[in-house]
């Protein structure tokens, strides 16, 4: 059964059926983008992500504009995770009869405005009828220099684990939209924005790539525990996260109080943050952080990669807990 196998077990299983033949393929399945060598010093990045109505978005909670923008943003985030500059997008959509043209134009306006912000050209795609839900699939290409490409599998023992923004905001924002009558309170605006209008951290990805001090990176789409787990597994390492270093804002604390939720659950396992997680050589961390903050973004140290294979959370009390990958899994959810 798919739900026993889980999303990543399923991907592992079909990977063996997806053979690569060209020696220009640097990475196929298993990283944020496929990475293809196109010249001695340049790589092509390709990523694709699908959003399905009722699984990824609800038309009664979100505007068409924000659904469109998010469908592109999640792809740009994968390009960012590889240190790339996004270039082109292809948009495919399956549309049920109940959606009108005005709504669909607003969806495309959301895609198009974010594309313009990142100088991405929309070059085509496919449109079809759907008998049930709407499905949006976007493919994005990007480029990196060969020596500025970030992978998931390069972390070293002792590297600093850093994230480029708040964790758990998107999960908290979604819970507020679903279960709170106060979700329009100003204090919650960053949480709602994180869920409805995520901004891909392309600029941070480029700085990390250029720094030559970033040994691995991933974007947090499924949750810290799952995505850190990918870097650990692929790098053959474990990780230690310090609770006192995890950013915990007043907005997140207040939302957790109001919804009787545990903010650490959102931080560790809530998905769709679309911030970058990076492994950075410790002696160069201050320099890289300065470059990121000078660009108006954040780089927050939350722990260290360590030898072994286990992920641990050191609580403020000093108690140590195991972290298991418990983020979003489509087939187990
Ligand atoms: Mg990703």
Tell me what you see in this structure:
By secondary structure, this protein is an alpha+beta fold. The protein folds into two domains: 132 residues, PurM-like, N-terminal domain (60s Ribosomal Protein L30, Chain: A), CATH 3.30.1330; 164 residues, Phosphoribosyl-aminoimidazole Synthetase, Chain A, domain 2 (Alpha-Beta Complex). It is 35% helix and 25% strand. It is built from ten helices and 14 strands. The strands form two sheets. Strands 1, 2, 3, 4, 5, 6 and 7 form a seven-stranded mixed β-sheet that branches. A seven-stranded mixed β-sheet has the order 9-11-8-12-10-13-14, with helices on both faces. Helix 2 runs parallel beside helix 6. The longest helix is centred in the N-terminal third of the chain and has 18 residues. The radius of gyration is 19 Å and the shape is globular. The two termini are 13 Å apart. The model has no long low-confidence stretch (mean pLDDT 93). The site of magnesium ion (MG) has 5 residues, from helix 2.
């Amino acid at each position: 059964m798919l739900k026993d196998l889980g999303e990543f077990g399923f991907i592992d299983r079909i990977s063996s059926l997806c053979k690569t033949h060209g020696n220009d393929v640097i990475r196929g399945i298993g990283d944020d983008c496929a990475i293809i060598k196109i010249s001695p010093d340049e790589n092509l990045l390709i990523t694709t992500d699908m959003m399905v109505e009722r699984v990824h978005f609800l038309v009664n909670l979100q505007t068409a504009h924000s659904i469109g923008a998010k469908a592109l943003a999640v792809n740009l985030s994968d390009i960012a995770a590889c240190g790339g500059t996004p270039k082109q997008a292809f948009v495919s959509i399956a549309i049920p009869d109940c959606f009108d043209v005005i709504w669909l134009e607003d969806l495309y306006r959301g895609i198009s405005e974010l594309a313009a912000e990142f100088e991405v050209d929309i070059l085509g795609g496919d449109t079809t009828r759907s008998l049930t839900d709407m499905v949006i699939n976007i493919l994005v290409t990007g480029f990196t220099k060969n020596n500025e490409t970030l992978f998931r599998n390069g972390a070293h023992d002792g590297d600093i684990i850093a994230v480029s923004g708040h964790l758990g905001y998107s999960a908290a924002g979604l819970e507020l939209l679903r279960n709170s009558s106060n979700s329009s309170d100003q204090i919650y605006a960053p949480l709602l924005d994180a869920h409805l209008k995520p901004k891909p951290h392309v600029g941070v990805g480029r700085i990390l790539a250029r720094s030559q001090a970033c040994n691995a990176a991933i974007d947090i789409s499924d949750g810290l525990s799952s995505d850190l787990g990918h870097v650990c597994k692929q790098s053959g390492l474990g990780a230690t996260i310090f609770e006192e270093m995890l950013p915990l804002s007043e907005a997140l604390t207040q939302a957790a109080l109001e919804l009787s939720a545990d903010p650490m659950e959102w931080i560790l396992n809530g998905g769709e943050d679309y911030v970058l997680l990076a492994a950075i050589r410790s002696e160069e961390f201050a320099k890289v952080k300065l470059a990121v903050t000078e660009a108006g973004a954040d780089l927050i140290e939350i722990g260290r990669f360590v030898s072994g294979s286990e992920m641990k959370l050191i609580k403020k009390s000093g108690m140590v807990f195991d972290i298991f990958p418990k983020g979003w899994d489509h087939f187990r959810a």
